[in-house]
Every structure is written in structure tokens, then in C-alpha cells.
Amino acid sequence: MTDYESLATEGLSERQVYRLLTGIVVPRPIAWITTRGEDGGVNLAPFSAYMILANDPAMIGVSIGRRGAEPKDTARNIKRTGQFVVNAPHVSQAESVHLSAEELPSEVSEVEKLGFGTIPGVAVDVPRLDGVPIAMECEFVQAIEFGRAKTELIVGEVKVIHVKEGLLHNGKIDTVALQPLGRVAGPRYAGIGEVTTFRELQHTLYTERDGA
Fold it and tell me: I want to staple 141 with a disulfide (CB 3.0 to 4.6 A). Which of 29, 121, 155, 189 is the partner?
């Protein structure tokens, strides 16, 4: 029998739990989010906890913690303007993603400081980053608070998806060609690695009428 170390989460600090979970839930896709600040400048920050919530309408959720007792600029900007863009970075953009995570005064634009180009939004008044393979323009739906640290799940409806030429085939994204960047524990990032492909399964939906 394999030996295990059992860790009770009660009594652990928020930081200790964070270090454990971010080493377990891996790799995490990165939502490189652009928003507009109060002064009209473009804020940029990466978040490595986001997911698909619904297909109709298209909805995603991004988990955003706090900076001490205060909301981070991204969450505050999203709730104030009702808009944001999720940029999906390429694995080659790991250093830029990491640098954009630096905590800066709200009036300082990470986009300008790091010299990124932007492209105006189509459905929202927030630009997407130039050079990323995919970007999703989103409208804010709601924020759901979790835990003592008051982490917020920011829910957005995806209005427009921008896909780099060559990545879309028969309505599907070529993930191998996309080469998305993921986050693992600590200041470490990774690509998707080897991809194994199986035959697609046919899913049948049953109803009470069908005898399920």
C-alpha cells in the first residue's frame, strides 16, 4: 500500500491552502484580462482560474481574489464598466504574462508599461491585445463571492471571439496549433505537452419519454 501524507485544511492559512491547490489543479488556463480604468487607460492582468460555465449563451467564469481587503483593479473595472476581454496567451508569451502580474498603481497601464499593442473591441469598449492567438470580448453578468477571503467569481457572457487565422477548423479550435499557456504551482508556466487523441464518443440524450 502506498503511503500518503494527509493534510487537514482546517487550521491551514489561506497562503498554505493556496500553495497546495495551485499545485494540484494544474495546468490552469490563463485569462489575460484587459479592462478600462477610471481614467480610460487599459489595465492588464493574468488570472489562472477560469472556466466554461455555459454554452447558451456562451458564459465563462474567472476567479479573482483581493489585494488585501480591497478588490483588484480588474474586478473593480469589470463591475464598473460591465465589460472586459479575455486574451488567451501563446506559450511563447510566458514572460510577458508573468511581468503583467506585477502590482502597480491603478492609474498605471500595464499595457503601456510593457509596450503591448492593442486592437479596438467590436462589441465592447475594451481593446484586446495584439499578437494573442485568441481573444473573447465579454459583458459582465454577475459576481459571486466565496470564502472568508471574499474571492469573487466574475461571470461574463462572451459576445465576440477573435481567432487567429489557421486555428479554426470545422468549427473547432486546433489546440495543438494554438499552443496555449498554462500555469502550474509557483511562478511557473507550461504548454500543453503531448496530446492523445481518441475517437469521439456519440452521446445520446434520454428523456422520460424515451424510457430513461
Answer: 155
